[in-house]
Amino acid sequence: MTLTISFFNYVAVAIFGCVLSAVFCKIPGRKREIIILTATTAMILLMQGIINRYFGLQAIRSVYPLVTHLPLILVLWYLQKRLLWSVVAVLTAYSCCQLRAWAALFVGALLKMDENALQGIELILTPLIFILILLFAARPIQELAQEKTAHILRIGIIPALYYLFDYFATVYSETLYNGTMVVVEFMPFVCSLSYLLFMAQISMKNREYQALEYNRRGLDMQIKQAVKEMEVLRESHEQAAIYRHDLRHHLQYLFGCIDQQKLEQAKEYIQGICHQMEAAKVVQYCENEATNLVLSTYADKAKQEHIAMDIQVSLGKFLLIADEDMGVLLSNALENALHECEALSDSGGDRFISVHGYSKDETGKIFLQIINSCREGIRFYKGMPITDKPGHGVGTYSIRTIVERYRGICSFSEEDRRFVLRISV
């Protein structure tokens, strides 16, 4: 009876492994593939039956890699044309067999069953373990097949080590059961090493994700800055159109004032028009148009919020940094400065923003220093200001990303309730 249960357990393990390997390889469920896999499984079971009939169950364990795993790998390779993943899929399915074996041991220990009953428990648990793997593990494993070869090799090394350990320590020898410490401690060592490598991999992936996230945010800022610039240009064109439309009315009014000898009134009217035109134009702070556009926009915002703004820049027409990056860099810096000054409105005190900068004509390199009043207690981590407010802190990282892209340097600091940003690109 025990031998019969053991044999059927081997049959269940073979079907379990073959089907699971095909699932991990994401073999299509077409008629051709089903026939090939069914025939392969039947051939494997037939060979196991013959070996069991003439040599016994122990012989099956000894030749299992040759009569089961190797044919299955070759068939999967034929069906999906990927040898490496076929090997990894079979080794992973083999590792999954350990789940049913351990679950049976746990149930047996819990219910105090003898070793002969464990085979029957394994047989009963096999469908349940198979369903759980299909529901929770099959899809993630299938997605790993699309990774690069180096990553697949890293994935496959754990089931490969377990496979070799299991056969050489329990099938082809009894060193594990004899209590040889090197062998006993081998899998815990592999688990610890795998965990460390896994953590290193996760850390690297997180850094890559953060870099991509910073780039995405930088692109978002560029888009926002482009929208702002287009809005400024649109308003300028609309204002110019209004002036052209109203020019005739202005001239008629001035002609009436002159005709009636109201010269002072005419002068005041002309000065009012000049003030309106002056407020609507982009101020020429330097030769660089992108810089002028951004500075003019934020100078108007600062004026509306009654924030003193001192701008002294001498930047050339052509800079080492691209105009779109210069716009994002300045916009981030000035927007942060405005937000910090606006936060001081309730506490009182001076609110100011100072922008100083210059460029070297022969190289196009620039130096910028932006100082603004700020609150006390700004926190820094690795030289970067940090905040717990959601959605904040993106601008400073965007500035650093742009500066590092041009191999420049930037620094953030707080000096006597003044936030100082220095940039050299």
Walk me through the structure.
There is one protein chain. The protein has 425 residues and is an alpha+beta fold. Helices cover 70% and strands 10% of the residues. It has helices at residues 2-24, 31-55, 57-80, 83-111, 115-136, 138-144, 149-171, 181-184, 186-259, 263-280, 289-304, 323-343, 394-405, and strands spanning 308-314, 352-359, 366-373, 379-381, 384-386, 409-414, 418-424. A hairpin with a 2-residue loop joins strand 4 (379-381) and strand 5. Helix 1 (2-24) packs parallel to helix 3 (57-80), helix 9 (186-259) packs across helix 13 and helix 11 (289-304) runs parallel beside helix 12 (323-343). The radius of gyration is 37 Å and the shape is elongated. The model has no long low-confidence stretch (mean pLDDT 84).
Task: List key phrases describing it.
425 residues; alpha+beta; five-stranded mixed sheet; two-stranded antiparallel sheet
Discrete helix count: 13
Q: Compute the CA-based radius of gyration.
A: 37 Å
Low-confidence stretches: none
Number of DSSP-assigned strands: 7
Biggest beta sheet summary? 5 strands, mixed
Coarse shape: elongated
Beta-strand percentage range: 5-15%
- Helix-strand sequence: HHHHHHHHHHHEHEEEEHEE
The rounded distance between the terminal residues' Cα atoms is: 82 Å
Overall pLDDT level:
84
Instruction: Return the structural class.
Output: alpha+beta
- The helix content is over 70%
What topology, given as strand order, has the largest sheet? 1-2-3-7-6
Oligomer: single chain
